[in-house]
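User: Can you predict the 3D structure for this chain?
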Amino acid sequence: MKVLLVSEYWKPKILGGGEISAGLMAGGLAGRGVDVSILTSRFAGSRRFEETGGVRIYRRLSTGASPGSLLSNLKRAVYFTRSVERELCELDRKEDYDLIHSLNITSLVGVARAKEQLGKPIVAHINSPTPFCPRGILLRGDAECTQRCDFSRFSSCMRRFGSVSKMKTPPYLSRNPIFARLVYRNFEMKRAAIRKFDYFMPISTFMKKLLLKEGIAEERIEVVANIVETEKFLSVKSEEHAVPRILYLGPYAEFKGPQILVSALSALKQEYECDMFGKGYFESKLREMVKETGANVRINPEAPYDDVPRIYQEHDVLVFPSLVSEAFGRVAIEAMAAGKPVIASRIGGVTDIVDDAKTGFLVKPGDMEELRAALEKLLADPGLRKEMGAQGRKKVEERFKADAIIKKILGVYQKAAG
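Assistant: Here is the predicted structure, written as structure tokens:
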């Protein structure tokens, strides 16, 4: 089978777990005898074509360098979809692929537009809620939004709460009707594009439910978790520390909830240490909170990915306090593979990963008291931490190893190509 994967970013341009998982997926498919090519964006200093690990990489798409930049996002909006449609059709005329796989939400519209010219089955990875929410976070204030959006509801939401796709939006934009119309139009295009795809691979049960709400038939959906380098973390030797060590690993951003963790820690009576690793606009505010509350928290720079297994080994509990419905929860799987219990918000895709009171605790998002209570239970009981860590490792070995996930992907490909 000859497959083309379309991804806006590709290594060495890695912006998050999505690109890491995509690289592992491509390598795993190639290892199973699939003829795999990647169509991705070009950046200064990168080769337009290379072959590595049995995967051919074509860097031909135009996009912005950073999703966190307003100017970069404008460039993405203007150029990316058009370049996907154009380059995909041109590359397929030369290579004649059996199937096209859109690996991220931003590629959906371009791949869908190309479908009529291609005459090939197309498959969509659904790894973000942006086709289901114009703001991309499925929140209305502090509560999860469960209603189908229209422009009136979206405009009201923008004026009251701001932010688009987890990016802070200045008032001159969030209250600007022209900007609101452009954002909503982008959302409408994604929602319409979904209907042109033949099969779907949502990365969690939560994402599958969103597809079902859009009227997508269940037989066209297969939940396929992101691939995590589980072996790297399963090999970590579990350590116990006399003073329990708590870990936060993620962006310094309000929607990730590190401020909720600081508040919960400041109310603890037990002895503890906490390390945070990340970067982001909210770092200075976090430092102020730590100073004001007296919480025993060290705020560290973002950790290189190769250091992450060691960091898990040096801590006893991972806290994943997100306030938004994350599509997945890579760090939760990594921590469980390393034998660590996880406290996570009871929301989004992480509920597929953490089994409440078995591999950790699920708590109400934003509820400092519930988070504090969960921390107290784990800090007070080394035996409970050890048992939950063992159960977490077992679950990762049973459900999140790469071989099982590649097998699922091949099953979807066979249905689509068939």
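The chain is about 45% helix and 15% strand. The first strand starts at residue 2 and ends at 6.
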